[in-house]
Design brief:
Blueprint lengths: L1 H14 L10 H18 L4 E7 L2 E10 L12 E6 L9 H23 L3 E2 L3 E6 L7 H19 L10 E5 L17 H7 L1 H9 L6 E7 L4 H13 L6 E7 L11 H5 L7 H6 L4 E5 L8 H4 L7 H4 L2 H21 L2 E2 L5 H26 L2
């Protein structure tokens, strides 16, 4: 985790420490976008840019593709990570959402490093950096019809309709950690208590400390991905960084009516909402944003910056989250170790023969002394 924390810290300070908004700081936003593209290229991820226009401004979703051996077939269980890189007009956006971007890029690097040494993956992995999330989740809405569905049709043909993907891990504001009592706010506490009794008891018994990551998913549609991430988290060390799981008892967002729509709104505040509306499996990982600690003041404000957010605890919390995401994607992509090459096999056989001959000769020498 220490190595992960160092890498995340460098990425955040270098490319996601200032405003990334198309009006107030378009230059730094382009710098961040160019960095994402260059990283995808370096990783060998076949980067693609999906351009869309809103009110005469150009926006770009960025996609990196790591093909599995099943790509183009109905058996390909696609899995991926998605996170937005833009900010509102007047924030530095280190937690929201530099943290998600740094985590995704590090996971992509880890996976592709293994592929470069010969690891093969059965299932295709997608990495998506969403643009224009802060103006109403526009980027993720645009990408489904403008890039994802056409790409699926080109790549899988008629099999695209039969795919059963694991889905996307969506990251948004994931590095806020606070051990202070009562640092965690709970929206609609009575409704939370009745719907998620275990979570409510855990948080209350811990004096409402903001020491956990939220794993949010629809308990049926996204169960496989949600439970895979939970297993990965629990297998890691550093138990002081906790996980609370929210399996939402809903299947279709279009059926949500008041008062339920208001109750579920805090769970729908990022790009996974558009994925769910299109019936794409997804889980949402977050630190709860403006419901916790410093972000209760700094959310969408100037103090979501390097000085406030890049503490040792926050970086280690983000590191555990990143490592759990890597373990989840690595497992679900079904990797296989590279086969031993013929040259290595021959070398190994000759080595065994030499060892055997030397051993026999030594025994005979001892017997006839």
């Amino acid at each position: 985790m220490v190595q992960t924390a160092k890498a995340l810290n460098a990425t955040l300070r270098g490319y996601f420490s200032d405003t990334r908004h198309h009006v107030t700081n378009s230059t730094y936003k382009k710098r961040a976008r160019d960095f994402i593209v260059s990283q995808f290229q370096e990783f060998g991820l076949q980067p693609q840019e999906h351009k869309f226009v809103v009110n005469q401004y150009e926006f770009y979703n960025i996609i990196g593709i790591l093909n599995g051996t099943r790509v183009g077939t109905v058996d390909d269980k696609l899995v991926g990570v998605g996170t937005h890189y833009d900010t509102v007009a007047d924030t530095k956006g280190v937690d929201d959402n530099g943290s998600g971007m740094a985590a995704m890029l590090y996971v992509a690097k880890q996976l592709t490093d293994e592929n470069k040494r010969g690891v093969k993956r059965n299932n295709t992995v997608l990495f998506i950096a969403f643009d224009h999330e802060e103006a109403g989740l526009i980027g993720s809405k645009q990408i489904i019809s403008g890039w994802l569905n056409p790409w699926l049709a080109r790549t899988y043909g008629t099999a695209a309709r039969q795919l059963v993907p694991y889905g996307m891990i969506v990251l948004d504001t994931i590095m806020g950690y606070n051990l202070t009592a009562n640092s965690q706010s709970i929206p609609s506490p009575q409704a939370i208590e009745s719907t998620f009794q275990t979570v409510y008891r855990n948080v209350q018994s811990d004096n409402r400390r903001g020491d956990f990551l939220l794993n949010i998913y629809r308990k049926d549609a996204d169960r496989a991905l949600g439970e895979a991430f939970t297993r990965a988290w629990q297998a890691l060390s550093h138990p002081r960084f906790e996980l609370e799981v929210f399996p939402l008892p809903i299947s279709s967002l279009t059926q949500l009516m008041e008062p339920y729509l208001t109750f579920y709104q805090p769970f729908l505040r990022s790009d996974h909402r558009n994925l769910w509306l299109d019936n794409i499996p997804a889980i949402f990982l977050t630190d709860s944003a403006d419901y916790r600690g410093a972000m209760q003041v700094c959310y969408h404000s100037q103090c979501d910056n390097v000085e406030t957010m890049l503490t040792e605890d926050n970086l280690m919390f983000l590191s555990k989250t990143t490592d759990a995401i890597y373990q989840t994607i690595n497992s679900l992509s079904e990797p296989s170790e590279p086969a031993t090459s013929g040259c290595h096999l021959i070398t190994s056989l000759w080595y065994l023969i030499v060892v055997l001959v030397v051993t026999i000769a030594a025994r005979y020498f001892i017997l006839f002394q």
